[in-house]
Write a structure and sequence with these properties.
alpha/beta, phosphoprotein, 14% strand, three-stranded antiparallel beta sheet, five-stranded parallel beta sheet, Rossmann fold, 332 residues, 2 domains
Length: 332
């Protein structure tokens, strides 16, 4: 039987580490991967640096008296929407209400956490996974949102596997393009120019993993890739690339187990990316200069509802993304 929280990445913020580890022991036994920090400032740095599936936040911790509220407020300002469950104690009813207004998804009295925390985390994660496709369709850049929308409408195993693999390839391709556009030029071991002329799903995965190993990889690329491939989890994606190749060459027949494997991966990615990745893409329409600053009007491409008219003001003219292999805007 698969543990309730198998491979679920959870950030735990509590200034009493021994107490936190004791309360979270049932969660760890349920398969969760826990990362502990002891203050709101440490939690902010960690939660904005890599994606998590859930957060457990003690309200009463540094900084100040109610560091949990400070953390939720800062995360909201940063646009990070990782589902948070707060631990409240005696006399913190008002703070618990404020936490829910700042976006906390649920709360548990700290005195009851030893018996309730596991079930509440499992319920919250299950709810988030159930909503993951809708979140991806509404919040991710349009090239990804459109694929997730087609995947959601697939009705049988063959179509679910086919649409799921196409969606996964779209994620790898999009991440690779972001990486190539934002990473300084560097050799990519194992990637030949001929492969990039007609890239396969496996090529996109190789490009992503090679770029991800570079010290200077672009921030938005590494953040996006971490939503799909947490540390040490590349084999799961490689297995699905192998599945795609087996189906394409007639060696493998799609099964319900394949569909479930794909669905789990895509929902995890969709939930993480919708909550954590803050990159945007758009198509420029006009640009003006008033002598001190540039104003660029562009159509933001997010979700499946059509372009969103947007404006960007900057002291420097916006520049096209450049390719990592030759550093020219034309090679994209």
């Amino acid at each position: 039987m698969t543990p309730q929280l198998a491979d679920v990445h959870i950030l735990v913020a509590d200034d009493q580490p021994d107490v936190a580890r004791t309360l979270c022991r049932p969660i760890e036994r349920a398969g969760a991967l826990l990362h502990f920090v002891n203050s709101g400032t440490a939690a902010l740095e960690t939660a904005t640096g890599r994606p998590y599936d859930l957060m457990i936040v003690d309200l009463k911790m540094p900084p100040d008296d109610w560091g949990g509220l400070w953390l939720l407020d800062r995360l909201k300002a940063e646009g990070v929407r990782t589902p948070a469950l707060v631990l409240s104690g005696e006399g913190s009813k008002e703070q618990t209400i404020r936490a829910t207004r700042l976006g906390a998804a649920d709360w548990v009295d700290k005195d009851d956490a030893g018996t309730e925390l596991l079930d509440r985390c499992a319920e919250l994660h299950s709810k988030c996974q159930a909503q993951a496709l809708e979140e991806a369709i509404g919040r991710l850049p349009t090239p990804l949102a459109a694929h997730f929308d087609r995947y959601r409408r697939a009705t049988n195993v063959d179509r679910q596997v086919s649409a799921g693999l196409a969606t996964l390839e779209a994620v790898l391709r999009f991440a690779a393009v972001v990486g190539l556009a934002t990473t300084p030029p560097a050799p990519l071991a194992g990637v030949a120019a001929a492969q990039l002329a007609r890239p396969s799903m496996g090529t996109w995965l190789t490009v992503c993993t090679r770029l991800g190993s570079l010290a200077g990889a672009g921030d938005e690329f590494t953040r996006l890739l971490a939503c799909l491939i947490p540390r040490g989890a590349v084999q799961r994606v490689q297995d699905l690339v192998n599945l795609r190749n087996g189906i394409a060459h007639g060696r493998t027949t799609p099964t319900a187990a394949h569909a479930d494997q794909l669905d789990g991966l895509l929902r995890r990615f969709g939930a993480r990316a919708a909550a954590f990745w803050r990159g945007d893409i758009g198509v420029a329409t006009t640009m003006t200069y008033d002598g001190s600053a540039f104003q660029a009007d562009f159509d933001r491409l997010r979700g499946t509802g059509g372009p969103i008219a947007s404006t960007l003001a900057t002291a420097e003219p916006p520049r096209p993304a450049r390719c990592s292999c030759c550093h020219t805007p034309e090679c994209r």
